[in-house]
Write a structure and sequence with these properties.
Layout (H helix, E strand, L loop, with lengths): L9 H12 L2 H13 L3 H29 L5 H5 L6 H33 L9 H6 L1 H20 L2 H28 L4 H9 L8 H14 L6 H6 L8 H31 L12 H11 L3 H37 L3 H15 L1 H5 L5 H4 L13 H38 L9 H30 L6
The structure holds tryptophan.
The site of tryptophan has 16 residues, from helix 1, helix 2, helix 10 and helix 14.
Length: 461
């Protein structure tokens, strides 16, 4: 056990897992998904999915990890169900795909931080040019991968936990000050209204599918990241309340990110929210111009914002890298530092098409055209869709495994460790119902819908 490492405290685990959850998904992706999904209606569905569908999946992942003290693949073997380790393997594959493109966007964030420090506010209008400069963006993403590898190679308590305990509070402070600031801008309320007043007529299958993908991605579920982090958690800790805190932290940060960004967007557009669907460029295109109007404060606020984004991304890339590294360390008995280097290098290579997909190469920039679509999708977006789909599939299989193969009573046994009142609690009944019935049925159904709407352009509503 000692050789494998572990979190030194409950707070360390929560900081690391919340650090994994809170990332580009919350601050970059969530707002543009809200924009594309028509605003507040998307937010409502996203929140429902997080609490009703995803929370039980999180509890299950952490419990499997802590029970077995193994990586995402080894955990299934350790429970005696070797065949089910394909779920872990699918998870590792998803993690590798996610990190390969996530690291590119993280590089953009860090590059923007540098541009803001230098006072280059016109970078927003040159976003396309910026992402197309693959030497520059490539260098930033190499830098980011090195920072991630450094933390992962230092191990669980000395690297991951320590970094998260510093970065997470910094993140919360930065985001709160930016929210307060954005509220003072002219037209801020038009943004808030777009974000918080739902128009349910905008709900259709694409919106539901987007919200489901987003909730899995945002909570780092469905690929064994939380099996892995759970494997470093002590038996003394309460899994259910820890998971609740992680979910709240993640949802809270996404919510705050929206509260910060839509006032900025509204300010930029003079209150017109009809173009709030900026896609991947939403914050990269809009925000620098906003910061420019702030005069001297702009350099500070702008740098702060993109530093925040980079920090948020870093604790997430760490968790994404930790999943395959932990697998290689456990299963192939490789030294952590060596495993980290090899895995990070391979993932960087896999990320090259994503690096090229945003302006540098036409092949990867117009990679596939889905059925029913009238324009092609770039490689990075495509990789994102594949990975998101795997997460929902992986999450469904994990709960089905826990309820029907490993069995609910074993899961409950693990959950009661560190939670003395569990066996008579309402939480137990709720989790039993959701994990045995509600989550598997809804998740499989939604998985099919996600595939239909993502790849085949089939839309209902
Ligand atoms: N949750 C992170 C975000 O919102 C991304 C992430 C980190 C992730 N680790 C993960 C997503 C594991 C899925 C699985 O930015």
């Amino acid at each position: 056990m000692a050789a494998r490492g572990g979190f030194s405290s409950r707070l360390g685990f929560i900081a690391a897992a919340a650090g994994s959850a809170v990332g580009l998904g919350n601050i970059w992706k969530f707002p543009f998904e809200v924009g594309d999904g028509g605003g507040a209606a998307f937010v409502v569905i996203y929140l429902l999915f997080c609490f009703i569908l995803c929370f039980p999946v999180m509890v299950t992942e952490v419990a499997i990890g802590r029970k077995t003290q193994k990586n995402a693949v080894g955990a299934f073997n350790a429970l005696g169900f070797k065949r089910w380790n394909v779920v872990g393997k699918l998870g590792i594959l998803s993690g590798v795909i996610i990190l390969s493109f996530y690291n590119v966007v993280a590089g953009w964030a860090f590059g923007y931080f540098i541009e803001m420090v230098l006072g280059h506010f016109d970078i927003g209008q040159r976003f396309g040019e910026f992402t197309a400069d693959f030497i520059k963006v490539g260098a930033y993403s190499i830098l980011f991968m090195l920072a991630t590898s450094y933390i992962v190679s230092r191990g669980v308590s000395g690297g991951i936990e320590k970094a998260s305990k510093i970065l997470m509070p910094a993140l919360i402070l930065m985001i709160l000050s930016l929210v307060v600031y954005s509220f003072t801008l002219p037209n801020a309320m038009a943004g808030v209204e777009f974000y918080l007043v739902p128009d349910f007529s905008k709900i259709n299958l694409a919106v539901i599918s987007g919200a489901l993908r987003q909730s899995f991605f945002s909570l780092s579920l469905g690929m064994g990241a939380l099996i892995t982090y759970g494997s470093y958690l002590s038996k003394k800790e309460n899994i259910v309340s820890s998971s609740a805190l992680i979910t709240l932290a993640d949802v809270g940060m996404a919510f705050l990110a929206g509260l910060m960004i839509f006032p900025f967007v509204a300010f930029n557009s003079g209150g017109d929210m009809s173009n709030a669907s900026g896609g991947a460029g939403l914050i990269f295109v809009n925000l620098p111009g906003v910061f420019e109007t702030l005069g001297g404060a702009g350099v500070v606020i702008g740098s702060l914002f993109f530093l925040l984004l980079s920090f948020a991304a870093l604790t997430s890339t760490v968790s994404l890298l930790e999943v395959p590294v932990s697998y290689v360390v456990d299963e192939y008995k490789m030294k952590r530092s060596k495993a980290t280097m090899i895995v990070a290098f391979i993932i960087f290579l896999i990320g090259i098409p994503s690096l090229l997909a945003n302006g540098a190469s036409d092949l990867f920039g117009r990679f596939v055209t889905y059925f029913n679509a009238n324009s092609p999708t770039d490689f990075m977006t495509f990789a994102g869709h594949i990975a998101d789909t795997f997460l929902v599939l992986g999450g469904s299989l994990i709960v089905i495994f826990a309820a029907y193969v490993w069995k609910t009573k074993n899961l409950e046994q693990e959950l009661s460790e560190g939670y003395s009142g569990f066996s008579n609690s309402f939480v137990k009944k709720y989790l039993r119902f959701t994990i045995s019935y509600l989550s598997p049925v809804l998740l499989i159904l939604l998985f099919v819908l996600v595939v239909l709407s993502n790849f085949f352009g089939i839309n209902i509503g």
